[in-house]
Amino acid sequence: MITTDPSSRTGPSDPSADVDLRPRLIVAGATGRLGTALVAEAARLGFPIVGGIGRTPSTIASVRGDGTIPILPLSGLPTLLGQGQVYLSAMTPEAEIAALPQVAQAGLPAVVATTGIGDEGNHVVRCAARTIPIVVEANFSIGAQLLFRLLRALGPLPAEYDLSLTEVHRREKRDHPSATAVAVAEALAASGVERWEEAQGRRTPGTLEIASVRAGDSPGTHTVLIAGPHESLRVEHQAFGRAAFAGGMLASARWLAATPARPPGVYGLADVLASRGARP
Question: Where does the Dihydrodipicolinate reductase C-terminal domain lie (predicted)?
């Protein structure tokens, strides 16, 4: 997953007049778990949705009860690109790799929550970011961003202290460890974590041990354990529902649609939250 350093960004801050901006949205992956939550949260907050992308063409009822939202196959994306203002995606990696170049060609800013996209997907994101601004994030919940901030502030730990992470997600989630878990490892770099490894028994000094659990329908729980000879400390983030991620994506959409336009590039949710007035 591509990560960004918020401190390297010098883009314009949000003028207060843009706080109530609600751009017209395209929701890719609209019938998936996160996509469904995103459509519901967008409708609740008054964002217009021009259409969605799904595996099977259909329509879904507007949560506000004022009509239906067309769901098109990926081949129908060009039709929606001519109507929307911001593209939001929670598709599979394969679909994202095919869709994002089209979004860039149309000139629409993008919010991408797809994880596990690998080297090919990261290359596609970087190429698209040459022409459009893209907010890419391992975890779009505000709580996860606070977790990263806390972990960056830890600083070096005594040599006899170990760091471990347990991440729990729904049983169908394919990638492991999760993109959020990898982001946790990156946030812990200042604490002396040189690399991470999946839990296999005997641990290697200076590494973050990651245990991945796939069970039930958990939206995501990440627990960091700092353990020493006589004590331990736990720091945990738990998403109660996928609306937590949808809120961060919608805040990003509002931020991308603000005036003046964001320069092309790869941004993170931290960039959005650092701007004045950033909220869903």
Answer: 143-273
